[in-house]
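Hi all, posting the design record for the shared folder.

TITLE: backbone redesign
STEP: 1 of 1
STRUCTURE INPUT:
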């Protein structure tokens, strides 16, 4: 029988509580929180924390999978509207914001033979057109070759990328500094003289992210 440190009720079913959320790589656990409080804090605190744009960018930058198999792009479902047109946003591996014209396809079930239709696509996503036309051909029961592209309008928008690498590096380095200094304080020379710790210290001194330390930073 244990007493929960959150609700002070007794409980018997022990479940580890991650002090630092597992979703951001936390491994330090305690066993003095009941299952109900564990679930509640995960929903009301940990999930909100991990989905914060700064934390989501940290997870994306260092591929911190946490409980899932994949790390979501921190800008997924984000839209940018320019001159009345919507663009999907995504963060690249270089921590740059990439924009793509949101694809627009008419509903296939509304298409009829000998009728024209309009598709809007970003130049980077032209492969989506082939997939769409195959579905149209299947729906109308005609060869794909019978679908003719009559007009192709190319709209050029000056490519622009917002670089957020520098700003996020400062946040990541701050997290790294806190972790490193805490480890040094708790573990003393056993940690300070470790080869990984020496590289870690060198990274902090340089003020630049050492991407070769990615597994250790995780």
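Okay, here is what came back for every position:
SEQUENCE:
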């Amino acid at each position: 029988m244990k007493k929960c440190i959150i609700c002070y009720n007794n409980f018997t079913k022990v479940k580890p509580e991650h002090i630092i959320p597992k979703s951001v790589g936390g491994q330090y656990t305690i066993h003095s929180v009941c299952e109900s409080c564990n679930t509640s804090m995960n929903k009301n605190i940990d999930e909100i924390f991990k989905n914060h744009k700064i934390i989501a960018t940290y997870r994306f930058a260092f591929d911190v999978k946490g409980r899932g198999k994949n790390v979501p792009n921190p800008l997924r479902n984000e839209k940018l509207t320019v001159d009345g047109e919507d663009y999907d946003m995504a963060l690249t591996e270089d921590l740059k914001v990439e924009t793509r014209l949101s694809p627009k396809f008419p509903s296939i079930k509304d298409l009829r033979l000998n009728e024209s239709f309009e598709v809007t696509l970003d130049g980077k996503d032209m492969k989506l057109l082939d997939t769409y036309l195959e579905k149209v051909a299947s729906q109308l029961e005609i060869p794909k070759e019978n679908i003719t592209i009559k007009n192709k309008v190319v709209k050029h928008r000056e490519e622009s990328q917002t670089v957020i690498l520098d700003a996020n590096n400062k946040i990541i380095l701050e997290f790294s500094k806190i972790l490193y200094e805490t480890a040094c304080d708790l573990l003393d020379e056993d940690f300070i003289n470790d080869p990984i710790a020496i590289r870690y210290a060198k990274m902090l001194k340089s003020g630049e992210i050492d991407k070769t330390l990615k597994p250790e930073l995780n």
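COMMENT: The mean pLDDT is 81.
Let me know if anyone wants the other runs.
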